[in-house]
Amino acid sequence: MANSVIVLDFGAQYNQLIARRVREADVFCEVLPGDTKASVIQDRAPRAVVLSGGPASVFEPGAPGMDPEIFSLGIPVLGICYGMQLMAHMLGGRVVAAQGREYGRTLMHKTQDSPLLAGVADPSTVWMSHGDQVMAPPPGFAVLAETSNTPIAAMADPNRNFWAVQYHPEVHHTEDGFKVFTNFLYQIAGITPDWKPDNVIASAVEEIRQAVGDGRALIALSGGVDSAVAGALAKEAIGSRLTAVLIDHGLLRAGEVEEVQAAFRDIDLQVVDAKAEFFSALGGVTDPEQKRKIIGREFIRAFERVQSLVGTREVLIQGTVYPDVIESGGRGAHTIKSHHNVGGLPEDIAFRVVEPLRWLFKDEVRRVGEALGLPEALVWRQPFPGPGLAVRIVGTVDEEKVGVLRQADAIVREEIYRAGLDRAIWQAFAVLLDIRSVGVMGDARTYGYPIVIRAVESLDGMTADWVRLDHNLLDRMASRIVGEVAGVNRVVYDITSKPPGTIEWE
Ligand SMILES: Nc1ncnc2c1ncn2[C@@H]1O[C@H](COP(=O)(O)OP(=O)(O)OP(=O)(O)O)[C@@H](O)[C@H]1O
Ligand SMILES: O=c1[nH]c(=O)c2[nH+]cn([C@@H]3O[C@H](COP(=O)(O)O)[C@@H](O)[C@H]3O)c2[nH]1
Ligand SMILES: NC(=O)CC[C@H](N)C(=O)O
Ligand SMILES: [Mg+2]
């Protein structure tokens, strides 16, 4: 990638937002751990480096540092919050715990003109979140802006191309925050914005062609957005030398196999029945991470069985996207959950895995899908996790519980669809809890499972809010679930956002 940016992550809540803003400026961007070595960065040849915020204080023992050599690479650097404090600390400035801490809305005044803050209102409303502050800038630095509590709200050494802001330009609440990014990327770092769907398509097609050579490849096709887009790219790249494989692990939703077969009639699609293997491997397991690892392994074993069935194929193409990588603890982030296709992969794999979308967020994948001309219903389909209903049963997984959940899930989705909310909602689904509660139905005592209804809105799956569904709609779902699904006697609605919850329950 000729025009790319690296974000060094010091544990900020907002580092993914930084990456998103850079990409919204049509510049490719990757997040790496804060302690990444200068040589690794040099190998990737980024045009700029951004230092993220973080919870630590630079002057405390054990605070995350960075390789000082990075300041000698001649690459423009932008420090944000902790990133600015680290820059000050390492280059000879002074950082202290502030008298007045600033959280939230703050009015900032410029103290001099600068390319970084060009076009930013003066004064302007910025979003702060810090307890420490830079008291003295390092030699060579000038102060660009201040607030009533923070004498150095922005600083720079234009000669060495080091720039920094104490506030958070990446959050929507900061007025003209995006301007800081475009100023830094285009004017200061001189980057050409070329991270656009057409270029993404061209480079993904090229990547697949290179990997497959004149051989053949398998694509793991779930019928979801990501694998449909990856499949379209693969078809563009290698045409009929592609076989699509849908694994029926017994954890799919009602009617799903038939739907995928109908939607992908024009490609060579093999449906593999792996129900027995998945159920036997999952038997008795309750730990969510263990479930995910088992599922990741069984997926690969199923692909390997197809591989030997349909002849030699060295490459397996998957629709992995960036959040799968991030949440699986890739790139130094904390492991939230091992996505089956990343953190759940076994070590011994009989083929090379190619993931043309692994740098993209979901909304970017959708833009690529639209640019490829895929049907709207496919591009805007609600996501469904690869581990399927297994991560929506809290407790052990067996065919009986999957059957119960599948029926409840079909009702939730049908009602959402009827209400015309299918596209407005990121995901709406049912979760089964492996506990029982007492109820009364037809004058008789019941002792059955509760079903949780979950409906969330999101842009990219990284953060989400629960949907304020109409009470009558919730009521219809609940009555139908208890009335139609044997074994369920109670329905609850999940009103947790992400964070602190995740979208799925496991
Ligand atoms: N049942 C399945 N059979 C074959 N491959 C699968 C199956 N489920 C998931 N995969 C593979 O794992 C990848 C990740 O799954 P994931 O659910 O994140 O993506 P998706 O299904 O393509 O899109 P969506 O997010 O819309 O559900 C898929 O892109 C696909 O390559
Ligand atoms: O292919 C997948 N394999 C997985 O292991 C997996 N886990 C979660 N998801 C989907 O990712 C998005 C974020 O989910 P969470 O908030 O539950 O982490 C949501 O859209 C989830 O449905 C998965 N997709
Ligand atoms: N958001 C941040 O990066 C905070 C930096 C540092 N922990 C402070 O409190 O000042
Ligand atoms: Mg899916």
UniProtKB/TrEMBL annotation:
Ranges where the GMPS ATP-PPase domain occurs: 195-381
Keywords for this protein: ATP-binding, Glutamine amidotransferase, GMP biosynthesis, Ligase, Nucleotide-binding, Purine biosynthesis
Keyword Transferase found: no
Catalytic site: C81, H168, E170
EC identifiers of the protein: 6.3.5.2
InterPro entries referenced in this protein's UniProt entry, alphabetically: Class_I_gatase-like, GATASE, GMP_synth_C, GMP_synth_GATase, GMP_synthase, GMPS_ATP_PPase_dom, NAD/GMP_synthase, Rossmann-like_a/b/a_fold
Catalytic activity, as annotated: XMP + L-glutamine + ATP + H2O = GMP + L-glutamate + AMP + diphosphate + 2 H(+)
Domain of life: Bacteria
Pfam families membership: GATase, GMP_synt_C, NAD_synthase
Pathway in which this enzyme or protein is active: Purine metabolism; GMP biosynthesis; GMP from XMP (L-Gln route): step 1/1
GO cellular component assignments: cytosol
GO MF assignments: ATP binding; GMP synthase activity
Residues that coordinate or bind ATP: S222, G223, G224, V225, D226, S227, A228
Matching PANTHER family: GMP SYNTHASE [GLUTAMINE-HYDROLYZING] (PTHR11922:SF2), GMP SYNTHASE-RELATED (PTHR11922)
Function: Catalyzes the synthesis of GMP from XMP.
Subunit structure comment from the entry: Homodimer.
Name this polypeptide is given: GMP synthase [glutamine-hydrolyzing]
Gene: guaA
